[in-house]
Amino acid sequence: MALEAHYERTIRSEIEFSGVGLHSGAPVKMRLVPAPAGSGIVFRRTDLDNFEIPANGRNVAKVSYATSLMRGSVLISTTEHLLSALIGFGVDNVIVEVDNLEVPILDGSALPYVAAFQEVGLKQQRRKREYLKILKEIEVRDGTKFIGVYPNLEGSSGYGIQYAIDFPAPIGVETFRGDLATGDYVEWIAPARTFGFKEDEAMLRNMGLIRGASDACAIIVSKEGVQNGPLRFEDEFVRHKVLDLIGDLALAGRRIQGRVVAERAGHAMHTALVQRLMRDRSAWELAHGYDEVPDTVENSEPVLGGLQVANA
Model-level pTM greater than 0.85? Predict the structure, then answer.
């Protein structure tokens, strides 16, 4: 039985972050600013006359090793961890002010963001939150890689996620299954860090990537194992892919009401699914009802939103 419709939320006060970009290595300061109901998530380049780039599928740019947005010739890169935290924690409207081309990587997870959201709390707004209710399947395939979104099974109205990865040893095969509507994003997904293979470092740096990478912001994996353990979860690698997926699918503009299944997918396939979904207006409708965990605190106090996992 669906709960009463939720209302949109923004953060109660401004939040500031600083750090370096994962790929650019450039220092960056970022400020999250409360935004009016209905405005969504908007990035603002304060170093470029406050040029704004809404976080939606129309503005997706390069997606090889991170999800970047571009409007005109203005770029904002590596947005997925912040977007994941916003969707996972239930923040609908915010302005993201950055003074460089890339969002700071922080510790490589979404945990610093949700910790800040918990500290300042969320403010309930007067507009009912809309969800993207999936009406028919949309799939993207590339060889053995695959991602698809499907209508919920009868009796369910959540945001189901099933993800499988298959990397070289020592990672191997990991699987995840859960639902973003069940309330545990902060505990089960947000702490999962990005990761990379030590043997790929020279190649990626020669490509102008990972200039800001260090063992403080990423899990470093070699053939011998994890170099900078311990892991936060036994299956932290697939959990981080789920974190990325939630952030990338945030570019649909609303939280999904449906089931997402992915096998060996990545940023490019995640965002390709968003764009295909946006092009097919018959594949979805806007809905207000959702089976979410009820808030334990009303109005302007901190609230949680997230994921419950079942590992296969």
Answer: yes
